[in-house]
């Protein structure tokens, strides 16, 4: 199965359909009047669809087992066609499109099985996804006017005693998001140097400044102390999201002092200095954090 451990749970919805076409009006009437020998067709097919939704991962090899938190099966009769729709909700890391289509398929097959003694010319068609919501794609933002600078704060890397990997991991993540990187700088853990460079990068046109390093608890970790006096507004929730995301992966995440906030129309964030910590922090808040630019421009907070 595809690795989804880097994803965050979000509310996800999917609606799928299957169309069952019978050959005679008498078949429709038998369904409506509950005269089908095998029982109530709609209720039996609904029950089968509920079972199918929950067992999708057992049938489709690459589907992840996930919590099904809502399922609805509805029917619409149009002439000799019955459209069965299945809607599924979950709060999870991956979507429920296949679950909805699998359930719709089983609903249709159950109807076929129950009706075949009455009608030998039943057809099943148009099994398809009608709608899906949730996941990162729903939170993508326009990055056309987003220009980033990446600052690595580390005494050892600045002295040439260690190679930077965290900053490069952040740059790779930004490039995947199609965000333009204007500058990449390595500096020692010094408050004046951090403050001066952040101001300089914003003046030069960067409206996204990402600092990696100096967010721990050692005496030389001073990035939060350097950054906080510069911020117009701190975004506590974003830093909490980073720590919560990390806490699911390592208990040491609670010791991180990541900071995020705005300076004018620029978004500034201080992330952990480890490669894994920096990369996971990017996964935790991007691309949703880019919605801040709409808010800063006067758009609605949705």
UniProtKB/TrEMBL annotation:
Signal peptide: none annotated. Keywords: Molybdenum cofactor biosynthesis. It is an enzyme of class 2 (transferase). Residues 149-292 form the MoaB/Mog domain. It comes from Capnocytophaga haemolytica. Its EC number is 2.7.7.75. The lineage of its organism: Bacteria, Pseudomonadati, Bacteroidota, Flavobacteriia, Flavobacteriales. Catalyzes the adenylation of molybdopterin as part of the biosynthesis of the molybdenum-cofactor. Catalyzes the conversion of (8S)-3',8-cyclo-7,8-dihydroguanosine 5'-triphosphate to cyclic pyranopterin monophosphate (cPMP). The keyword ATP-binding does not apply. Pfam families: MoaC, MoCF_biosynth. GO terms for biological process: Mo-molybdopterin cofactor biosynthetic process. The gene is moaC. One of its GO terms (molecular function) is molybdopterin adenylyltransferase activity. It catalyses: molybdopterin + ATP + H(+) = adenylyl-molybdopterin + diphosphate. This is Molybdopterin adenylyltransferase. Pathway: Cofactor biosynthesis; molybdopterin biosynthesis.
């Amino acid at each position: 199965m595809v690795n989804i451990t880097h994803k965050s749970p979000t509310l996800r919805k999917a609606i799928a359909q299957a169309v069952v076409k019978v050959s005679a009006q008498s078949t429709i009437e038998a369904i409506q009047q509950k005269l089908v020998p095998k029982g109530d067709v709609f209720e039996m097919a609904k029950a089968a669809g509920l079972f199918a939704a929950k067992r999708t991962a057992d049938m489709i090899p690459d589907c992840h087992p996930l919590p099904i938190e809502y399922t609805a099966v509805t029917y619409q009769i149009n002439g000799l066609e019955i459209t069965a729709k299945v809607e599924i909700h979950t709060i999870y890391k991956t979507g429920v499109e296949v679950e909805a289509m699998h359930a719709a398929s089983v609903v249709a097959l159950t109807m076929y099985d129950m009706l075949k003694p009455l009608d030998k010319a039943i057809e099943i068609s148009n099994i398809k996804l009608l709608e899906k919501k949730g996941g990162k794609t729903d939170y993508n933002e326009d990055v056309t006017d987003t220009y980033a600078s990446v600052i690595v704060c580390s005494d050892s890397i600045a002295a040439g005693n260690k190679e930077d990997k965290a900053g490069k991991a952040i740059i790779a993540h930004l490039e995947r998001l199609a965000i333009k990187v204007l500058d990449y700088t390595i500096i020692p853990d010094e408050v004046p140097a951090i403050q001066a460079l952040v101001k300089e990068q914003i003046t030069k046109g960067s409206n996204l400044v990402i600092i990696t390093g100096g967010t721990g608890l050692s005496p030389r970790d001073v990035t939060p102390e350097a950054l906080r006096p510069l911020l117009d507004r701190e975004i506590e929730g974003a830093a909490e999201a980073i720590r919560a995301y990390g806490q699911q992966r390592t208990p040491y995440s609670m010791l991180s002092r990541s900071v995020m906030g705005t300076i004018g129309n620029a978004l500034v964030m201080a992330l952990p200095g480890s490669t894994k910590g920096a990369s996971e922090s990017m996964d935790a808040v991007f691309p949703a954090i880019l919605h801040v630019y709409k808010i800063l421009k006067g758009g609605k907070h949705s």
